[in-house]
Each structure stands twice: as C-alpha cells, then as structure tokens.
From TrEMBL:
Family recorded in the similarity comment: Belongs to the D-isomer specific 2-hydroxyacid dehydrogenase family.
Naturally occurring in which organism (per UniProt): Taishania pollutisoli
Signal peptide: none
Keywords assigned by UniProt, alphabetized: NAD, Oxidoreductase
Record-given protein name: D-2-hydroxyacid dehydrogenase
Length: 318
C-alpha cells in the first residue's frame, strides 16, 4: 500500500511503516493538486498535520482512499464524520504531543510574566535604561492561580507542570470528574495531586491570575471566550491559547488588552492561519509563536510511531 505523508512524518514513523511493507512518500503535494496526486499515484493512505485539508470534495473524488491520518490532536482540517460515513478510517494521535504543548504554554506563561517577548524585540534598538524601567514590573508564577479550560490530556499535562512550580490549578471541563495528576519533580521523585473539575466556566474566570485554553474549535465556529467572558476575568489576567484559532474572539481580545483588563496574552494559534491578523502579531502585549505546540523532536517521533502503529494494526495485524 502507498502512503502520502503530505505534511511529513518522523524518520522513526517512516521506518516502522516501511519495515511493515508500506511505501511512504513525503514529497509535498499542493492542496489544489491533492486529488489528482492521490488518484494518479494510487495512494490508499493520506497522512496530514495542520497544513493539508481533507474535505468532502477530496473524499468524494478519491474512491481508492482507505485511511486518513492526522498527526496531532485536533482534526478540524478533516471532514471526519463524512469520511467515516463513506467507509474511510480516520485516525489521529491525541496522546503524543501533550507534553510538548504543555511545555510551550509554560514557556509562554513565563514570557508574558516578564515581558520577554517585547523586550527581546526592543533590546537591539531601544534605550537600555528606559527598557529596564518599562519592563521592571514583572510578576512571579509561583503562588498564582492558573485556570485550565478543557481538561483532557494536554490540560492535565499543563496542570502537572504548573503544580510543579507551585501554582494553584482550577480546571473546567464539560464533565465533572476527579483526576489524579502525577507531578514529576526530577531526581526520580514523583508526587500526585487530585484535581476535581468544575463545569461552570463563568464562575471560574474571576478566580484566575492566568488562564490557558485547551478545547477544540467549536463546530459552529463560535468563540469560547468573547467580550462577556473577558468582562468576568480579573483585571490584569494573563492568557494563553495553544489550542485552536477562533476559541478566543480575537477582536474582543484586542479590546481587552487595550483596556488593561488583560495584561498580556500568548498565542500559538490564530483564526486565519497561515495569515494571522497583523494587529495580533505586532501588539506589544501579545507573545506570538507560529503554531509550534507539537513541534518538538520528541513529539514528532511519538506522533510518527503512533501513526505507524495504528496503520499497521489496521492493515497488517488484522
């Protein structure tokens, strides 16, 4: 069977698949040429990350396509329900990138607490003493309360890191449950903390010094956090979004930043990727990264290996 890994796959993932008898092609096909390439080259499996979309028109036009795989968590770039209705297998790798995304968010929280993003941009051409004065009112994370919206694998991994540096954690999810969070302390030392999720988002917002969101893009395209939710937050709250563009109302976010309601925000995802609103990218209170939450070598190795295992189990083991 031939596999098109159109957004790439790690060396270990490619090796495992080839050892199992698959042909893996990693040559990039432009979106507009995808249908022709699948049919001409007889690809039966297409693997994507976030750049390539597999919509209804691709599914309808490619009858030989048997499996669509997403290297990552969210599958909003695939028409999943329609593909499955047409008999296609659709897989993703929800566990493989959790740690990498959580570590990025922790880095973002440190950055927006100490003005690292803006000071880095201004050090080359700014006046040293003026910058020192401007950036002299940072805050510490230890002892602060972090609200995590969406308490799946990534949210739980983030909680582990936050607890490890001495933050208090409030978790909100659709379902009320108690989760045992392992906290790795180094030197082979572990502790465990139980967190009971809340289900009332609005009542949580005013309790938090920091808020990080980890939910999928909403089916109707609506924002989870808009002007009404920003109004309920503490003055000076700091935010992070490494989930999906659109879960924050970006115009409402800009208004909250400009009013001082939100002290700073870190964004790894945007509504109009790969062409985000320039006002977000240039705002001095926003720390931006280009959707790199899962972009670590370790995560990509785990994603590739998990994809390979799923495909082998589907077509070889069966």
């Amino acid at each position: 069977m031939k596999i098109l890994a159109n957004d790439g796959i790690s060396a270990i993932g490619k090796q495992l698949l080839e050892e199992a008898g698959f042909t893996v092609v990693t040559d990039k096909v432009n979106q507009e040429d995808l249908i022709n390439a699948i049919n001409t080259e007889n690809y039966e499996i297409v693997l994507v990350r976030s750049a390539t979309t597999v919509r209804k028109e691709v599914i309808d036009a490619c009858p030989g396509l048997k499996l669509i795989g997403r290297g990552g968590v969210g599958m909003d770039n695939i028409d999943v329900a329609y593909a499955r209705e047409k008999g296609k297998t659709v897989i993703n790798t929800p566990a493989s990138s959790s740690q990498s995304v959580a570590e990025l968010v922790m880095g973002q929280l440190f950055s927006i607490s100490r003005f690292l993003n803006d000071s880095f941009k201004n050090m080359e051409h700014g006046d040293f003493n003026t910058l020192k004065k401007n950036y002299g009112k940072g805050v510490e994370l230890r002892g602060k309360t972090l609200g995590i919206i969406g308490f799946g694998r990534i949210g739980q991994s983030l909680a582990s890191y936050a607890l490890g540096i001495g933050m208090d954690v409030i978790a909100v999810d659709n379902m009320a449950c108690t989760v045992n969070i392992p906290v790795k302390l180094g030197n082979s030392q572990d502790v465990s903390v139980s967190i009971s999720t809340e289900t009332d988002l609005k009542s949580m917002l005013g309790k938090c010094d920091y808020i990080s969101i980890h939910v999928p893009k909403q089916a109707d395209g609506s924002a989870v956090i808009g002007a009404a939710e920003f109004a309920l937050m503490k003055n000076g709250v700091r935010l992070a979004n490494a989930a999906r563009g659109g879960v924050f109302d970006e115009m409402a976010l800009l208004a909250a930043l400009n009013s001082g309601k939100v002290a700073a925000c870190a964004l790894d995802v945007y509504e109009n990727e790969p062409n985000p609103n320039k006002e977000l990218l240039t705002h001095p209170k926003i720390a931006c990264t280009p959707h790199i939450g899962a972009a670590t070598m370790e995560a990509q190795d785990r994603i590739g290996a998990e994809l390979a295992e799923l495909i082998i189990n589907e077509f070889v083991v069966k």
